[in-house]
Design brief:
By secondary structure, the protein is an alpha/beta fold. The chain has one domain (about 5-210): 3-Layer(aba) Sandwich (Rossmann fold). Helices cover about 55% and strands about 15% of the residues. The chain has helices at about 15-30, 45-55, 65-85, 100-110, 115-125, 140-150, 160-180, 190-210, and strands at about 5-10, 35-40, 90-95, 130-135, 185. A 5-stranded parallel β-sheet has the order 2-3-1-4-5, with helices on both faces.
């Protein structure tokens, strides 16, 4: 089977991490060759750029600088991690990718989704996911989850005001409208088990279609 690139998106507090972990374990149990990665980050240099992006001491970063840093991190990520894995026929499960930049910088920061999209196509050699799961929760619920489950300090984006998080949520809905054939919405406000089951069913059914 050729490699498959599956990404997971959602506003802060959507519960992506636990969903990805469940899907990764199930796919490995079924004999698939799977790797997990994340953005920003996913390779040595990309992780260093992540530190700059999320550092709370960098509050007030210019929106275009932020967007360019994400694109630079993404470039390193695909070259060093994603493309090699796909070329080896692996299934790549990635926590965030290009759609995050469209929602956060393109829409919420007001740069423009088309500008951010073009920038990232250049950075990624036009690599798009085969499938994207958008786990949706209201910004209020998402941020409340983060505060309840907080184990360390919040990062630079998590400490943004609620108005920003609402824009991110609406931005994701706009992104899904642009790519309805690739992006599948999952109700992240259902129970944890329901969310995991729905997400797993979507991924398994998609993989089966690719091998038939």
């Amino acid at each position: 089977m050729k490699g498959l690139f599956i990404t997971f998106e959602g506003n802060d507090g959507s519960g992506k991490s636990s969903v990805i972990e469940t899907i990764k374990k199930e796919l490995i149990d079924r004999g698939y060759d799977v790797i997990y990665s994340r953005e920003p980050g996913g390779s040595r240099i990309a992780e260093k750029i992540r530190d700059v992006i999320l550092d709370v001491n960098n509050v007030g970063m210019d929106p275009k600088t932020e967007s360019l840093l994400y694109a630079a991190s993404r470039r390193e990520h695909i070259v060093k991690t994603i493309l090699p894995a796909l070329n080896e026929g692996k299934i790549v499960l990635c926590d965030r990718y290009l759609d995050s930049s469209l929602a956060y910088q393109g829409f919420a920061r007001g740069i423009g989704m088309d500008k951010v999209y073009d920038m990232n196509l250049y950075a990624t050699e036009s690599l798009l996911p085969d499938l994207t799961l958008l786990i949706c929760v209201s910004p209020e619920i998402g941020m409340n989850r983060i505060k309840q489950n907080q184990r360390g300090s919040l990062d630079r984006l998590e400490i943004e005001k609620m108005d920003f998080h609402k824009k991110v949520y609406n931005g994701y809905l706009e992104v899904q409208k642009k790519f309805p054939n690739r992006i599948v919405i999952v109700n992240g406000e259902a129970s944890k088990e329901q969310v995991k089951k729905e997400a797993l069913d979507i991924v398994i059914n998609f993989i089966y279609k690719q091998v038939q």
